[in-house]
Design a protein that fits this description.
alpha+beta; 5 strands; DUF4258 domain-containing protein
Length: about 110
């Protein structure tokens, strides 16, 4: 099954990294946008100046969280989706989300 990669619109911009992670975790464009619109929790993102939004997914027996990291742009006005990932289990509230090392390195390169 191949997922359609999202395309940039007037308000939403997608990085190559976010598109790659969406394919890896099998997130659709609508799923990521739903996390943005109705998050169960919002926190400060790992990268400087970013926001991480989360929705609870999975079942009671196998709980997971779907996370999206984004930044609000001033010019052009809109939102840039930086990354999306699935976390197995539940993260404590207020704690920064745990991101694998390879993903952190990619994010640092992308934001520089």
């Amino acid at each position: 099954m191949f997922l359609k990669l999202p395309k940039n619109s007037e308000k939403i911009f997608w990085t190559k990294h976010s598109q790659m992670k969406m394919r890896q975790y099998r997130f659709s464009e609508k799923r990521v946008l739903r996390i943005l619109r109705k998050p169960d929790r919002k926190e400060e993102g790992i990268a400087e100046g970013t926001i991480a939004a989360m929705q609870i997914t999975g079942t009671k027996k196998h709980p997971t969280e779907a996370w999206t990291m984004y930044v609000v742009l001033k010019k052009p006005k809109g939102i840039k989706i930086i990354s999306a990932w699935r976390y197995p289990g539940r993260t404590p509230e207020g704690a920064r989300p745990i991101i694998p090392e390879d993903t952190l390195e990619e994010l640092e390169k992308m934001l520089k």
